[in-house]
């Protein structure tokens, strides 16, 4: 049930309450206080940059939803998402185009999620989810703590008839013996010389990593030629097209910037969508 009464001078409006906690709408991130610690989802009409996130995180609510404010240069409007993530706090942003700035209740009623961090995603929140629904998922969900060294974001996105798979992971370091000779790994770290030992250890059926912005002398993709001598088929995505550290972004958003000879022999070309290249690496050879 939605309540219109304000709670004290901090302008907190409880829009949903249950035994576990409440969803609280606030007009500004600076209206969070100790009442929300450990139990409430706060829905704020402030932008979700690092500055408001620092203030909200000081009070450790169960989760936080703010605005993306157009995201802006360097992602400043949503940078707080990863500040929260580092602290284990689920967080999401709402698309500013559909809400009233400075009106937390309106954000709750009319907002649509535009971006999420990993803990929020574990609670079931995705871009396109209404803020009303997202707030309940965050209130009732519990992000799973990750053990040190645990493989994160390892997602199968395609399986061939022979059982080979395209697998997205956030780093080539998350490859395993199960990938040897059967998996196309789509990852999100650079492909410089430090990636070579991981590639040689895992020896995947194919791989796509990031070029890391290339660097001086194309050092961000130097590993492609090194492992070409080992017969490993690989390519890189342009770091300007996909998020570093997010293998799913490499797959869905990435555009191929380089490919070694074994990858080109399977049909991979510069300018190709990474998802298409991953399929060709999977079925070729």
Walkthrough of the structure:
Helix content is 26%, strand content 23%. The chain has ten helices and 13 strands. It is elongated, with a radius of gyration of 22 Å. The protein has helices at residues 50-58, 80-86, 104-110, 118-122, 131-140, 196-202, 223-228, 247-253, 261-265, 274-283, and strands at 6-7, 12-18, 21-26, 41-47, 63-67, 91-94, 113-116, 155-159, 165-168, 183-190, 206-210, 234-237, 256-259. A hairpin with a 4-residue loop joins strand 1 (6-7) and strand 2 (12-18). The chain has a seven-stranded mixed beta sheet. The relative contact order is 0.09. It is α/β, with parallel strands linked by helices and 285 residues long. It starts with 5 loop residues before the first strand and ends with a helix. Helix 1 (50-58) runs parallel beside helix 2 (80-86).
Summarize the structure.
This protein is α/β, with parallel strands linked by helices.
Q: How would you describe this structure in keywords?
A:
single chain; 285 residues; alpha/beta; 7-stranded mixed beta sheet; 6-stranded mixed beta sheet; 26% helix; 23% strand
Number of strands: 13
Name the overall outline: elongated
What topology, given as strand order, has the largest sheet? 1-2-3-4-5-6-7
SSE ordering: EEEEHEHEHEHHEEEHEHEHEHH
Largest sheet: 7 strands, mixed
Secondary structure class reads alpha/beta
Mean pLDDT: 91
Supply the number of helical segments.
Answer: 10
The helix content is 25-40%
Indicate the low-confidence ranges by residue numbers.
1-8
Distance between the ends: 59 Å
- Sheet-strand content, in percent, reads 15-25%
Radius of gyration: 22 Å
